[in-house]
Structure formats: C-alpha cells, structure tokens
Amino acid sequence: MTSMTNRLNIRLMGTPEILIASGVPAALPLNHLKARALLFYLSAAGGTHTRDHLATLLWSEAGSSEAHHSLRTSLYHLRQALQAVGAESALVSDGEMLGLGSDAYECDVI
C-alpha cells in the first residue's frame, strides 16, 4: 500500500515556520516546545542521530532515564502533529537512529 505524503518546508531563518508542499502554512498542532526543537534540529542537521545524542542534546539537565522518557514523549507529540498534516512518514526511525527522510522535507538552513 503506497500513500502520498505531504512534503515539509521548514524555515528556520527568521521566525521558524513549517509549510506543507502547497506553500500554505501548516497548522501543525505542535505546542510542545521540545518536540518543535527536535523537529528543527533534525531538519537543520540532516542525517540520522542516535536517541542518546538527541536525549542528551535536548535534556542535558536530566538524568539518562528521564531524558529518554522526555524524548519518547516529544516523539509522540511530533508524530501526532505530522500525522495531522499528512506528513507522518517524514520522521524515520530505525531502532536507535532517528532522522527525517531526505525526500520528505527541505530546510532553508541546509
């Protein structure tokens, strides 16, 4: 079963915003600040990153267990928001590695 997914256009220069393929501002229901930070980091850095790296990057003040729990929570919020705009396949997870599919988004920083 093949489904079409919306391509994300993530703009980080200036006020960060997320647009869908049609150029209409995506009403991304993503009020969770760390989930937004995670999306912005993954889009600007490109490639895949370990869960340990992301947990340490975003929750350096927390212990390892708490940081990983917070990462799972943020991933849940991010997946829900991406699904709401038809871009659920943008987030790629392969075991311990996380990233954005290179064909699912473009970012003005790259």
Write the layout of secondary structure elements.
Elements: E1 8-11, E2 17-20, H1 33-45, E3 48-50, H2 51-58, H3 64-84, E4 91-94, E5 97-100, E6 105-107
Parallel strand pairs: 1-6
Antiparallel strand pairs: 1-2, 3-5, 4-5
Structure description:
- With about 110 residues, this protein is α+β, with helices and mostly antiparallel strands.
- About 40% of the residues lie in helices and about 20% in strands.
- The protein has helices at about 35-45, 50-60, 65-85; strands at about 10, 15-20, 50, 90-95, 95-100, 105.
- It has a three-stranded mixed beta sheet, with helices on one face. The chain has a three-stranded antiparallel beta sheet with strand order 3-5-4.
- α1 crosses α3 and α2 packs across α3.
- The model has no long low-confidence stretch (mean pLDDT about 90).
Characteristic key phrases:
110 residues, three-stranded antiparallel β-sheet, three-stranded mixed β-sheet, alpha+beta, single chain, globular, 38% helix, Arc Repressor Mutant, subunit A
Number of helical runs?
A: 3
User: Would you tell me which CATH topology applies?
Assistant: Arc Repressor Mutant, subunit A
Total strands: 6
CATH class: Mainly Alpha
How many structurally independent domains?
1
Average pLDDT reading = 89
CATH architecture: Orthogonal Bundle
Encode the helix/strand succession as letters.
EEHEHHEEE
Quick structural overview:
This protein has three helices and six strands, in the order ββαβααβββ. Helices cover 38% and strands 20% of the residues.
